Amino acid sequence: MDESIYLDEARDPLIIAEGWMKDGKDVAIATVVETWGSAPRPVGSHLVIDAEGNFHGSVSGGCVEGAVVTEAIDVIDSGKARMLEFGVADETAWQVGLSCGGRIKVYVERLG
Amino acid sequence: MDPYVLKTLNEERRARRAAVLVTDLGDGRDRIVREGDRVAGELGAAIASAFRTGNSRSVEAEGRTFFLNAHLPRPRLVVIGAVHISQALAPMARIAGYPVEIVDPRTAFATPERFPDVALHAEWPEDVLKREPLDSYTALAAVTHDPKIDDFALKAALDARCFYVGALGSRKTHAKRVERLLAMGAGADQIARIHAPIGLDIGAASPAEIAVAVLAQTIHAFRSRGLESKGAVA
């Protein structure tokens, strides 16, 4: 159980995103905006991604992060936000679905 | 996300102040709402609920879809007094999700043997609170019965607008405490925020039962934050 009442600056995705921005990097922020059924990470969780594909945080238990990073790099290029949906009902379930059986919606946007 | 919005949001989070990030999922525009900011209509009601519950969610309002990401500081409980009640209160509060710190300058009371696995300060509240100031996401329970130890912390808790302030002692004891706090410069409206006698009235008798009553009152105070002031305005 995390007992700290202060931010864990070294691991906090939004703090890391701000640091990357200050370093002049292009950054995308992915946010879980909706969940149905059993979902590994709660609504509001973040994954932050830079243009090289480095990332911090999580939007699932590691099941869909790879796909989100790929989409995020496109979002950084185009500047257009995207809404992604993942779940076992997807035909891509075997590749990037959630093995826990839940469904999540992830909003991916560029920082700046 | 707007870079300035991210910077502001992180500043608020670092300072342990609550904020809700409101993102229009249609056009991607976002803004920060701080606790106490007035936002009208359906969206305002949803934001108020996000502050109270700490739950993030998507809402439909004014024909648009907004995502509300609630960033609430983690609530914590500071207990003044390393007494029998605190020994029961510390593990219970931690299980309920409220990290606990115990402050008592009496080194015979504040021992790691009596309080295993608890953040314990065998120091005066004056010294500890200077280092780790109280804030509106902190609850304070003063349970030493000793004005020399309790009073300073109670006044500091009122000034910092702690979401919960409780003090152990009978009505008679509390009446004397009120006089002392008034002499220290506390306002009558501030003093009215102190829960004394401490704890929900569940007929608690043993120290552990009193701890349950204190924890329940703390949780109630946390989950009804903002509701009292709204009632006062209306």
Rg of chain A (CA only): 14 Å
CATH class of the largest domain in chain B: Alpha Beta
Helix content of chain B: 40-55%
**CATH topology annotation of the largest domain in chain B:** Rossmann fold
- State the separation between the terminal residues of chain B, measured CA to CA: 36 Å
Q: How do the strands line up in the largest sheet of chain B?
A: 7-6-5-8-9-10
**Percent range of helical residues of chain A:** 25-40%
CATH superfamily of the largest domain in chain B: NAD(P)-binding Rossmann-like Domain
> How much of the polypeptide of chain B forms β-strand, as a percent range?
15-25%
**In DSSP terms, counting alpha (H) and pi (I) runs of 4 or more, how many helices of chain A?**
3
What's the overall geometry of chain B?
elongated
InterPro entries (chain B): MoCofactor_Util/Proc, XdhC_Rossmann_dom
Organism (chain B): Mesorhizobium tamadayense
Protein name (chain B): XdhC family protein
Protein name (chain A): XdhC family protein
Helix and strand topology:
The complex is a heterodimer of chains A (112) and B (234).
Chain A: H1 13-22, E1 27-36, E2 46-50, E3 55-57, H2 65-78, E4 82-87, H3 93-96, E5 103-110
Antiparallel strand pairs in A: 1-2, 1-5, 2-3, 4-5
Chain B: H1 3-14, E1 19-24, E2 30-34, H2 41-53, E3 57-61, E4 64-71, E5 76-80, H3 84-95, E6 100-103, E7 119-121, H4 125-131, E8 138-142, H5 147-159, E9 164-167, H6 171-183, H7 188-191, E10 194-195, H8 207-223, H9 227-233
Parallel strand pairs in B: 5-6, 5-8, 6-7, 8-9, 9-10
Antiparallel strand pairs in B: 1-2, 1-4, 3-4
Characterization of this structure:
Chain A is globular, with a radius of gyration of 14 Å. Chain A has one domain (13-110). Chain A has helices spanning 13-22, 65-78, 93-96; strands at residues 27-36, 46-50, 55-57, 82-87, 103-110. Chain A contains 3 helices and 5 strands. Chain A is of the alpha+beta class and 112 residues long. With 234 residues, chain B is of the alpha/beta class. Chain B has helices at 3-14, 41-53, 84-95, 125-131, 147-159, 171-183, 188-191, 207-223, 227-233; strands at 19-24, 30-34, 57-61, 64-71, 76-80, 100-103, 119-121, 138-142, 164-167, 194-195. In chain B, strand 8 (138-142), helix 5 (147-159) and strand 9 (164-167) form a beta-alpha-beta unit.
